[in-house]
Amino acid sequence: AVKRCCNMAVTGEQLRISQIGLVARSPEGHAAKGMAIKGHEDLWVEIQANTFRNWVNEHLRSVGMEVRDLASDFCDGTRLCALVEVLQKRKLRPSWIKRPANQHQYLENVTSALTAVSEDGVKLVNIGNVDIVNGNLKLILGLIWSLIVRYQIGRSKFPPRKLMLAWLKAVLPECRVTNFTTDWNSGIFLSALLDYCEPGLFSHWKHLDPNDSVRNCRTAMELARSHFAVPMVLEPEYLASPFLDELSGMTYLSYFMKENSPGFRSTLRWVNSQLKDKHISNFTRDWNDGSVLCDLTTSLGAPARHQLSNDPLVWESNLNNGINAGRKLGVEPLLRAKDMVDSNVEHLGVMAYAAHFQWIPPRTAPSLTVAAGSDSHTTRINTMTHFKIEWLSDEVDHRNISVEVIGPEQQRVDCRLTYDSVSGKGVFTPTHVGMHQVTVYNEGEVVKGCPFYIRAMPELSEITYTGMEPCAVGSIVEVLVNSNGARSGNIDVVARSPTGRSLDCPVNERGGVYTATFQPDEPGEWSIAVMHSGELIQGGPFTCFVFDPDGVKLLGLESPAIPESIFDFTIDARGTGGLGRIIVDIVQDKHSLPHTIEKVGDSLYNVSLHTNRPGKYRVYVYFNGSLVKGSPFALRVGTREQMKMERYNSAASKNSYSSSTHESSRYSTFNRVNSPTIHQISSPVNSHSPSPFGYRGASPLASPLRSPVEKTASPALRINNSSLEKSSSSAFRVNSSSTEKSSSAFRVHSSPILKTSPGFRINNSPVEKVSPGFRVNSSPSVNGLHSPVHSPGFRSSPSPLASPTQSLQYNTSSTVDTSSNVRVSTMLSNLSQRRDSWDALIKTQNNPNEADLKVSGDSLQLLPLHRASTLYIHTDAPLAQINVTVTAPSKQQLPIKMTRSSSQQAVAYFTVTEVGEHAIDVKVKDQRVAGAPFRSHAYDACAIKVGRIPNGMVGQPVEFEIDGSGAGSGNLEILVNGGHVTSFVRNLGNQRFLASFVPHEALSHLVEMKFNGEAVPGSPWQVAVMSGGLGGGAPKMSV
Predict the structure, then answer these.
(1) Where among 241, 257, 273 does a domain terminate?
(2) Residue 890 lies in a domain
(3) Which residue from 491, 635, 902, 990 has the highest number of Cβ atoms inside 10 Å of its Cβ?
C-alpha cells in the first residue's frame, strides 16, 4: 500500500487558493490549480463531479458498467481497471480481480490501474491506491482529469489549456475566446463552434439572445449530440452557470477538437483545400517532414521551399522555412520546428497552428507581384544590355529580388540591379554570341514574363581597310568635300562600280561644304572620283569597299538531320564581295548549341553540328555583324513523327528547361517509321591546333569523320576496310588523302553496317558519310584552313572537308507500319517550307502494346468534337460479342453504333460532345483487348480564340494572343506567308500563348492557323506591313 503524505509546506501562492485545490493538485495543473474559488466549493465540486462521472460512463458503457458515485464506485478498483482497459484498448497485465472480496484485493486492483496509466505517461502526484479506496473525491477528480488529458485531449509537453484555447481562438476569430467558463455561459460561442464544424449548420448564431443562456446551451448541445454524436457530459444548466469550472468546460469542448472530431475534420478539410498535389489525413506524421506546411504557406502567397528527404535535420530545415513564411503572413508558431519533427508530436498543437492560417487573406503570390521583360530581344556582345523590372504590388521588397543570367555556353553572366520605389532595372554585358536566358526571382519564385531570352549578336565588324569605310550594298554613301581655300569652281563627284558602271552623284553646297551621295548596288571595290573644275583633286580617286550580306547562301539544309548525330552544311559567302567575317549561332529551344565551323575554300565554309533531340533548329548567320537575308534558317531534325512525339514529351514536362549538353540518345529505338538501323559512333575531340575560338565547355563534338563507303548488292552500306587501319585499342583510324590524322579516331560499338529500308533512297554513287540523312560527298578532301570565320564560343577545327555533292535523302512517299494504329506523315526529300508548331495542351498518352493490338483507328489518338469518330476492331467475332464503351469526362457513356466492314473487321462509330480525355474500353467475348481501356482526347478547333492581329512594320515584331484553354489537347500550327516567315510563341500560362513574327518586307503577310490540322476560326488573316524607313548611319569621307 502506498500511503499519502499530508505534510506540505504552505507558500504565499498556495494561501491564495483553497485547501481543496491544494489536495487535488498535480504538476499538469489538474483539479483547479490557480482557480480562485473563494467559496462555492460545493457548486464547483458538484459540476465537476457530474461532468467527470458522465465522461467515465461514456467509456464504461461499451463494457456494460456504470458509475453513479465517483467516491464509492471506484473503491474496489473494478470500474477503474475496466475504464483504463477501455482507454488503453488493451487488457491489464497482470489481470485484475473481477470480484474482490476484501480491502487488500481492492488495493491490488487500484494499484494495477494506477501502474498501467503511470507506465503510459500519466504523472500521478499526491495520489495513491489508499486515496481511491478511501473515496477521496477531490483526488479521484484529479485522477480522472489526468485521464481526460492523456486519452482525449492528447499527450503533450505543453499545457493543454494553452493549445485548446489557441485552436478555439483560431477557428472563432469573431468570438474572441479567452477562457473555458464565462465565455461559454450564453451558448452563443458553442453555436458558433457548431457552425464552424459544418458551415451553415447554425448560421444564425449571431442573432441569439445572450440572456436566454440555458435555452441557447440546450439547443446547441442537443444539436451537437444529434449531428456530431458529441455526448452531453455537461448539463446545459451547468454550462450556463456562472460557477462553471474550467475543467468541466474543457472536458466538453475537447470533444470538438480531439482526433477525428467535428472540429478536427473541419480544419483538416480546409488544409486539404489549400493543397493542390497532396491529401493529408492527420496533424501529426503528415507534418513531420515540413512539406505540408511549406505547401500551405505557398498556397497563401508566402512561398517556402522544401526538400524531400528521410533526414530529420532536413525536415527541421523545411519546417523552419515554412514557419518563416508563416510569419510573413502574420502567423506565429505555437511549436518549434524541433517539436513538429517529433513523430509523437501532439495533434492539437499542429492543428491549432494550422487553423490560424484560415482567416489570413491570401497574399498575392510573389511571382505575380513582379514582372520583368526587355524592350528588345536582341543586343550585341560587349554592349551594356538593359531590362526592366516592374512592381505590381506595394508589398514588394526589393531585397527579395534576385536575377540569373545564363549565357549560350551555360555560364553565369554578372548582372547588376538598381531600384526605385516602383520598379527596378537590370543591366548585364554579354560576351558571347548566342541566346542569353534572363530569369528574375521574387522570394525564390520566377516572376511574370520570365524567363525571357535576349539574343546577343556579334559586334559590327572592324574591317581593316584603306580609303573610305566599308559599307553594305544599298547603304547611303555620303561624300563631304571641304573647299575652304580653294578657288571657285564646280565640284563633280562620280562613283564607278566594280563592273565599270559610272554613277553620277548629285552635289549640294552649304557654307562652303559640298555633299554628294550615292547608293552602291553591287558588291566589290568602288572608285569615287572628286573633280574640281574638271580636275581630279589630290588623293583621288578614293576607294570604297562594298559588301553584300545578302550574298550568303546555306547549302545542305534541305534534308532533315537525324537526332543524336553529326550533321554538316555549307555556307557559301562568295556572293558577299569577300571582305568580312561570318559568325554562326545555332539555336534549339532558345538555347545556343555547340558546333564547329571551318574554311574549306575561297569564301566557302563547312559547319558541323551534333544534333540533340528532334525538332526545329534555327540557324542565325551574321556577316560583318549583320544578319544575312533569310536568317534564321530552319533546320529540321528528325522525322515529322519524331518531332511530334518530342512535342508531346516537352508538353508533359513543360517546367523543365532543355539544355544544350548532350544527353544519352532516346531516339535510337524510335520505330514509328521504317528507318535505318544506326550504329552509334562516338568521336572524341583531340585537336592540337591553337584556335582563338576554342570551346569553353565540355563537348563530345569532333571534327567531321569521313571514310569511303561502297555500295554492295544488298541494301546495306558497308565501311571499306581498306581505308581503315585498326589500332591496338580497337579503334579505327581514318586515312584522308593518305595522311593519318589521330584526331579522327573513332570507336565502332557494333557492326559497321547501316541497313536501309524501302522508306529511304540512296544515290548510286560513292558515299563518304556513314550516317544516313546527312549530306555526303565523294570529292577529295582538302586540309582545313584558318579563316576569319567565327563560331561563338566553339572550336574552329582544321578537319578535312570537301564540298558536298551527294546526299542521302528521304523518299517522298510515306512508309506506314500497318500493324500500328498511328498514322505516319509524309516525309519530303526537300523541305522548302518553314513551320512553327507547339502543343496547346497535351497530356501524355500511354500507347498500348502494338504487337498485341486488336484495335486501330484515328480515334485512339484524337477525337474531333461533334464529328463521327471510328474505331476498327480486327476480329471475326459476331457483333453481339463485341462490346465497346466510350466514357466522357463527365462519366457519361456515349452511344455506339456497330457495323462490320469485312468478315475480319468490325467498326464502331461514336460522336463526342465534350472536350477532354475519353476512356475507350473494348471487349471481345467478354475479354478485354490488350491495351484497353484506351485514353483519347477530344478537341474543339472552334474553341481556339485568337486576339486581334495588328498591322506591322518592317523589322518590328507583330504580337497577338491565342487562348487555347477550351480547345483540349492537340497541336496548333502557325504559318506566316506559307512558312517563309518564322513565328515565335511564348507560354503565358493557363493554355494562353503570345505569338509573334518579325516581317522583313513591306508587303501584306498571310497568317494561317490550324489546330490538329483544322483551320481555326478566322484563319487566314491578312496583316498589312509598312516600311520602317532607311536605317544605319552612312559612311562619310572628308576631303
Answers:
(1) 257
(2) yes
(3) 635
